[in-house]
C-alpha cells in the first residue's frame, strides 16, 4: 500500500519523506489557505520535495474552466496531479485532461457507482472519503471494499486513494479493504509510529545496556 501525505505544509512533507513513507501528497484549497501566501509557490515547493504525485485541486465548475485550471496547475511541475470533484462537468474535464496525458484524481467520491464512472472517464485515482461516510452513519470501508471488488473484476487501472482518514485503524482497514493508497494527515502518521509497548521496550533495553557500563561509540 502506498502512502500520500494529506498536507500542504512543506516541513511536514519533508519530514515524512525523510523516513520513506511519502509516496505522494494530496492538497486542497483549505490546506493551501492554512499555509498563506501564493498557493502556486507552495505547490511548487512541495513538488520539489516529492518525486511522486502532488495533488492540486481545481476550483472551477464548468468543463472548460476545469480544463484550463488543470493545464495551468500541471505547468507548475510534471508530477502535479489535477484533483477534480465528482460532478458531470468534472468527469468531462477528466476525459479531456487524461486524453492529454495529465494525471487526474476524482475527489469527493462517496459511492462505488461514482467510482466506476470516474474510472470510465479515465481518472488516474479515485478518492472515496471514508471518514465523512462514517459521520453520516454509513460504513466508509464498505465503499472501499465495493470499489476494490468492481475494479478487480474488470480491467480498470484507476487506483483507489482512500481519503478522510481519521486514525491508524482507518489506515489498516483501508489496506485490508483493498485501497491502493491512503492519504494520511501527518498527525495520524505520528500516531502510527508510536505504541506504548515499543516505548517500554526501548526504555528496558537502554537501562539494561547502561548496567554493562560500555559505549558503542
Describe this entry's structure for a reader.
The chain is an alpha/beta fold. The protein has one domain (2-192): Aldolase class I (TIM Barrel, Alpha-Beta Barrel). Helix content is 53%, strand content 17%. It has eleven helices and eight strands. It has helices at 10-18, 29-35, 39-49, 63-74, 88-99, 112-121, 130-135, 140-153, 168-177, 186-193, 196-212; strands at 2-6, 24-26, 54-57, 80-85, 104-109, 125-128, 159-162, 181-184. The chain has an eight-stranded parallel beta barrel, surrounded by seven helices. Helix 1 (10-18) runs parallel beside helix 3 (39-49), helix 6 packs across helix 8 and helix 8 packs parallel to helix 9. The longest helix has 17 residues, at 196-212.
Brief rundown of the structure:
This protein has about 220 residues and is α/β, with parallel strands linked by helices. Helices cover about 55% and strands about 15% of the residues.
Layout: helices, strands, pairs:
Blueprint: E1 2-6, H1 10-18, E2 24-26, H2 29-35, H3 39-49, E3 54-57, H4 63-74, E4 80-85, H5 88-99, E5 104-109, H6 112-121, E6 125-128, H7 130-135, H8 140-153, E7 159-162, H9 168-177, E8 181-184, H10 186-193, H11 196-212
Parallel strand pairs: 1-2, 1-8, 2-3, 3-4, 4-5, 5-6, 6-7, 7-8
Amino acid at each position: 500500500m502506498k502512502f500520500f501525505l494529506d498536507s500542504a505544509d512543506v516541513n511536514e512533507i519533508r519530514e515524512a519523506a525523510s523516513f520513506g513513507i511519502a509516496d505522494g501528497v494530496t492538497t486542497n484549497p483549505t490546506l493551501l489557505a492554512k499555509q498563506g501566501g501564493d498557493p502556486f509557490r507552495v505547490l511548487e515547493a512541495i513538488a520539489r520535495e516529492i518525486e511522486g504525485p502532488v495533488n492540486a485541486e481545481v476550483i472551477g465548475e464548468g468543463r472548460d474552466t476545469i480544463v484550463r485550471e488543470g493545464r495551468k496547475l500541471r505547468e507548475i511541475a510534471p508530477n502535479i496531479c489535477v484533483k477534480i470533484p465528482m460532478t458531470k462537468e468534472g468527469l468531462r474535464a477528466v476525459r479531456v485532461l487524461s486524453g492529454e496525458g495529465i494525471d487526474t484524481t476524482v475527489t469527493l467520491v462517496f459511492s462505488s457507482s461514482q467510482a466506476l464512472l470516474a474510472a470510465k472517464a479515465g481518472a488516474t485515482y479515485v478518492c472515496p472519503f471514508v471518514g465523512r461516510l462514517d459521520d453520516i452513519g454509513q460504513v466508509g470501508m464498505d465503499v472501499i471494499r465495493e470499489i476494490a471488488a468492481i475494479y478487480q473484476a474488470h480491467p480498470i487501472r484507476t487506483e483507489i486513494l482512500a481519503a478522510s482518514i481519521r486514525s491508524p485503524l482507518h489506515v489498516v482497514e483501508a489496506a485490508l479493504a483493498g485501497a491502493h493508497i491512503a492519504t494520511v494527515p501527518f498527525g495520524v502518521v505520528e500516531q502510527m509510529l508510536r505504541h506504548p509497548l515499543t516505548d517500554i521496550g526501548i526504555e528496558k533495553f537502554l537501562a539494561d545496556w547502561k548496567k554493562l557500563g560500555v559505549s558503542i561509540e
